[in-house]
Amino acid sequence: MGNKKIELLSPAGNLEKLKIAFKYGADAVYGGVSHFSLRIRSGKEFSYESFKEGIDYAHSLGKKVYATINGFPFNSQIELLKKHIIKMAELKPDALIVAAPGVVRLCRELAPNIPIHLSTQANVMNYLDAQVYYDMGVRRIIAAREISLKDVKEIKKHLPDMEIEIFVHGSMCFAYSGRCLVSAVQMGRVPNRGSCANDCRFQYTLYAANEDHSTLFRLEEEPGVGTYIFNAKDMNLASHVDEILSSGAVDSIKIEGRTKSPYYAAVTAYAYREAIDDFYAGKFDAEKYQEELATTKNRGFTDAYLIHRPFEKNDTQNHEYALSKGSFEVSGLVTEDEEHFYCKYKTYPNDEIEIFAPLNSEIKEVDNEIGKIYKKDDGKYYVSFKKILTETNKELESVHSGNTNKIKLPGKLPYLTMLRVENMEFEQKESCMSGGCSD
């Protein structure tokens, strides 16, 4: 890798999230159109037209977009897949992310000028498999999530020209690199064709059966313990970014989450951008990045398998809940004119609301009849409203999510700035978990 700075790759579930990822620090994003992507729900949010707009926007910033064609097609889909590859190639993405060997070959035939990145679903764990794909024309592998940093280094040693991308943050699958059939068996939704129903996140009741006597016993459990038996915690390797970058073996670090919220896209890009830049500046501070990442909704965090071997781990499963709230709620998103915001939660006059702005933003303090924007001793900027006014100057007592009116800001804030408030439910939950409250 030499002196080349590592790439930060973020998810883009739609055009807005694509723009947010770039505003908050991503070097590249990945996303897709249609059911040939492994995230159908996010794929439906991109049309060919809006995906092209996203690619053009990225290129105007000198950044990149990788198009996902990482599903596993059935025979009946192959002719449609060929048309899709040709159509995607016309949009000029910077790479195609592909999982199946046959689709790799198809992309080489139909889109020979576009680099191919091998999906994590191909489960590359060693340099032998990496060599096979390199010989097929693949120029980057997204390593299996179960790989160790030691093995990443070994692949790089044998194939120095092969780029290596690893996941550092986001949802973890209890199955090996996402190769799961539980959703297909229970719901008829096939995970490896992009329509996973997330059955592993459900709460299950356990039974014991005796086939000789046709008896069935419900296993009683301590309330709240052991019912989420398949539920993996979320990966979070922010504290290990320094080790990853020091290895010299990784070309790109990737954040999972095309179906996650715009706030998640912003915070994860921001935190990992800081981690990367701080490492190169010699001031790496893991606690700072973790504090920011904790504001996102999550299932609890684990550092997964990159640093520790699987049998050494005992903290990868969350048996208590499927998804918790983060420590903050997003209360608003600043509009393109930079003078208004759309309410995403609830806002009342005199509330103190933190401003979470894109990287390197300049914020001016103001105090007028609408409200004030000010900086506190903690170094953060806040906004407080004296009046809540719509774009047409109608005054409201308060504004809540669902209200589609633009709400006036006291002063300009950068486009896609997020306004956020502390989540009191989260604070209470944390207090209770540490023994601070009783039933």
Automatic annotation (TrEMBL):
<comment type="similarity">
    <text>Belongs to the peptidase U32 family.</text>
</comment>
<dbReference type="GO" id="GO:0006508">
    <property type="term" value="P:proteolysis"/>
</dbReference>
<keyword id="KW-0645">Protease</keyword>
<dbReference type="InterPro" id="IPR001539">
    <property type="entry name" value="Peptidase_U32"/>
</dbReference>
<keyword id="KW-0378">Hydrolase</keyword>
<dbReference type="InterPro" id="IPR051454">
    <property type="entry name" value="RNA/ubiquinone_mod_enzymes"/>
</dbReference>
<dbReference type="Pfam" id="PF01136">
    <property type="entry name" value="Peptidase_U32"/>
</dbReference>
<protein>
    <submittedName>
        <fullName>Collagenase-like protease</fullName>
    </submittedName>
</protein>
<dbReference type="GO" id="GO:0008233">
    <property type="term" value="F:peptidase activity"/>
</dbReference>
